[in-house]
What does this fold into?
Amino acid sequence: MGRLIDGQWVDQWYDTSSTGGAFKREDAGFRDWIEPGARFAPASGRYHLYVSLACPWAHRTLIMRHLKGLESHIGVTVVHPHMLDQGWQFAEPEPLYGYRCMHQLYTHTRPDYTGRVTVPVLWDRQEETIVNNESAEIIRIFNSAFDDVTGNRDDYYPSALQNEIEWINERVYSDINNGVYKAGFATEQDVYEQACRELFAALDWVEVLLGERRYLAGSELTLADWRLFTTLVRFDPVYHGHFKCNLQRIEDYPNLLGYLRELYQWPGIADTVDFEHIKQHYYYSHSSINPNRIVALGMGPDLHVPHQRDRKVYATEQQES
Ligand SMILES: N[C@@H](CCC(=O)N[C@@H](CS)C(=O)NCC(=O)O)C(=O)O
It folds into this structure.
């Protein structure tokens, strides 16, 4: 894996030497928004999404693309699961330019780009540029920008719940979504231990919350849930072993397990989960963590078992009724 420096690809692992062994995630470089009347206006067929099926951040965007009925309006290209010395690559040349590597789309947009080359990427075919490569923003764009194109007005970020959603997102992002990476990429024992303990403290907190609420922000499924889901579904098969997040498994948390099953069983969601890509990517790509590239066998809990979440009355529902 590597990064672009002044438009040149340089093969280098994350630098943890200047941060005392801690992994610090770089901010995404492209942050434009799609909205009616703006430079990037919603339109069917104009935008294209580049994803990895292994990546939890990209996975969120695939989920929202499905839930918002965007499949026939926004095309998708999937990268090869192994991220090696050229970073993300395409198994077949990608459809718009025939590029082999993800970094070529970054330098197509900005020839002197400096930064990491990450997925997801939301591409504008009209202006031939990256619109946005921050998943937290892409899912909000998908939530509402194309409603007039699709007629789908389902709202996973309702204004009445936004404060609650953002409050939950903050801890879920820092300690869980990014927390597994902070534990897994740490190169000092104390840094790893702190990240791992914060991660499990946050999972304990969510476990309690999900005993009181059907979903994270209350009785409605929101973006906060899909943001957590993509980490939970990778947890037992990958993060528990590969990233040493092994104080407990999701399978050991009754509420989290039922919740994970419910979200997995949501119409169309299982089709967005590719365990083969997930396991291949992590175990094979991170050679500093797993130099022999042995892919662990465990698949995590059976997600097809009935979730039973609908059998319970939650405190938030009692308050609402
Ligand atoms: N802030 C970004 C992070 C995306 C990200 O880090 N994606 C990983 C894959 S899981 C990646 O592409 N990493 C390549 C790298 O860091 O060089 C987002 O949420 O969209």
About this structure: The chain has a mean pLDDT of 96. Residues 116 and 190 are 26 Å apart (CA to CA). The beta strands are 2-5, 8-11, 47-51, 75-78, 115-116, 121-124, 129-132. The pocket of glutathione is lined by residues 1, 28, 52, 55, 57, 116-120, 133-136 (CB under 6 Å).
